[in-house]
Amino acid sequence: MKPVTRHIRHGGFTMMEVLVASTILAMIGVTVWMTFGGVLRGRDRMLEVQDRYQQVRQAMQRMANEITHAYISIHRWPAEERTRTVFIGEDEGDFTRLTFCTMSGLRLYKDSKTSDQNVITYFMEASQDTPGTNVLMRREKRRIDDKPQAEEGTVSYPLIENVRRVKFKFWDPQEGGEDKWVDRWDTTAIERANRLPTRVRIIITLAGENREDVNFITETRIFMTFPLGFGNI
């Protein structure tokens, strides 16, 4: 009797099966990577927007704090008028240039010859880093002189970048009609000489997502609306 020879087939994958499996795994890997990458990009974008909005809120809080301490004074020595206090808001279309004297100054150095009184100017200028955009600037003159609007002796730095509009509106209780918000204020003019608005509204517009504008609005009060006149003879 002849022995029976059994041919045993060893298990495994053909080349075609390996190629198909490798292709499927590669497609799954690419899909997972694209999804994960999209999530990371979305998170980074969200954090960037949150940081930018936080920067705007902090800047507006500082602006409101400085404006609420605004003042004007007629306490000047007639023989030598070295100081001149003003509150001037100039409407320039999409932007309002605001110059005012305030008592919000900080002494940065020990024994320095400075006080809490200074001159602040908020204005717009074209961005040097990103053409076609504007920057909200803050200019500070730490010593009040007879030319509060002059650039001499000032320090300037940016507050908010990529700004479309910055508007200041001023509440005038002596304005006729129900709407007492005005776009201009000048304590050196006859109409509003030597008096300040009781409230100031700050409106800042940024370029948002999908070319939609994002508005930030806040209001602050001014408590010393009439000039300081102590010491007058």
What is the CA-based Rg, rounded? 32 Å
Provide the structure class: alpha+beta
Number of strands: 9
Distance between termini? 143 Å
* Residues in helices, as a percent range: 10-25%
Largest sheet, if any?
9 strands, antiparallel
Task: Assign an overall shape.
Answer: elongated
Helix segment tally: 1
Oligomer: single chain
The succession of helices and strands, N to C, reads HEEEEEEEEE
What does this structure look like?
There is one protein chain. Helix content is 23%, strand content 30%. It is α+β, with helices and mostly antiparallel strands and 233 residues long. It has one domain. Strands 1, 2, 3, 4, 5, 6, 7, 8 and 9 form a nine-stranded antiparallel beta sheet that branches. A hairpin with a 2-residue loop joins strand 1 and strand 2. The longest helix has 54 residues. It is elongated and about 130 Å long. 17% of the residues are buried.
Short description:
With 233 residues, this protein is an alpha+beta fold.
